Fold this protein.
Amino acid sequence: KAAKFHTSAPISHGIKRVGVIGSGQMGLGIAMVAANVARLPVVIMDVNKEQIDKGIKFMDKLLEKDVGKSKITSEHAQGTKDLVSTTQTLKDLRDVDIVIEAASENLAIKTALFADLDKECKPDAILATNTSSISITKIAAATSRAHQVIGMHFMNPVPVMKLVEIIPGLATTDNIVQTTKELATSMGKTTTVVQDVPGFVANRLLMPYINEAVLLLENSWASAEDIDTTMKLGMNMPMGPLTLADFIGLDTCLAIMKVIHENTGDTKYRPSVLLQKYVDAGWLGKKSGRGFYSYK
Ligand code: CAA
């Protein structure tokens, strides 16, 4: 079987050091591929030390699994671990060439964070966000360097999924788009460039599909299992839409659907009442132990 990761160091762009904000599933995955594939030093910043420890443990487990499957050598895995450092303070991002933010999907949190990053990071640093639906232009407006702010939307699980959507904001310059694309490529990803429209492309297609599946369930027109089996066996999807929604998080699906609905004003994007109810109940999918399926 072909090696999963490049083992050379394909650094052809200006990025020499990466900062990642957030050590949850997305942040950790992004940091891991930056170190393991692009071979770049990465500093992960998260205010929550417990979350950092959990993330690093998970990364070590994934690396060990790849060593066990002879996808990478143990020296390569150790090299990856050595490239990753962690911090709880933004000041430690002062010498990175790009920050990739993967914090909570909340406009107020992101704009406050980007205003702080603008102050702490060196003037030529690129500020990228992994937002799945918030306007890049809005986030950029919280900084004094809107031309250097860009969307870099990774898919979950980051080490496995090959796509990164690159989203320039209104003011983002072409050279920033180019550098960001090159970085994503060196991380082993294929890029697409998408305008700053609600849901970009990935979620503009995925979330109405998931929402439509929830509407079928809400109306009792088919069981959850039969809806998922239809798409798995009928369309060769790796997961049915309801399983996928549980895997993404129902709160995330609802939030994205709301952003698309509110920002387009188009009723065709109205979130399903059942999706809202599940979120209200705290049934958020895999992470909470219950969504459309039970995970206990
Ligand atoms: N992190 C890292 N690697 C993971 C992983 C994780 N969380 N979960 C699974 N993997 C790896 C496994 O280790 C395994 O690797 P090896 O081949 O090296 O052993 C590989 O993925 C396949 O895993 P499994 O055999 O256990 O299971 P699978 O065949 O069902 O694959 C899956 C799992 C890749 C997640 C697959 O089910 C899948 O492709 N699901 C759909 C994922 C998807 O659509 N993601 C996009 C979500 S939307 C999004 O992210 C955008 C947004 O803004 C909401």
Q: What stands out?
A: The pocket of acetoacetyl-coenzyme A is lined by residues 62, 69, 132, 155-157, 159-161, 202-203, 206, 238-239, 244, 248, 252 (CB under 6 Å). DSSP finds eleven helices and eight strands in the chain. Residues 11 and 183 are 8 Å apart (CA to CA). The beta strands are 18-21, 42-45, 84-87, 98-101, 126-129, 149-154, 163-168, 190-193.
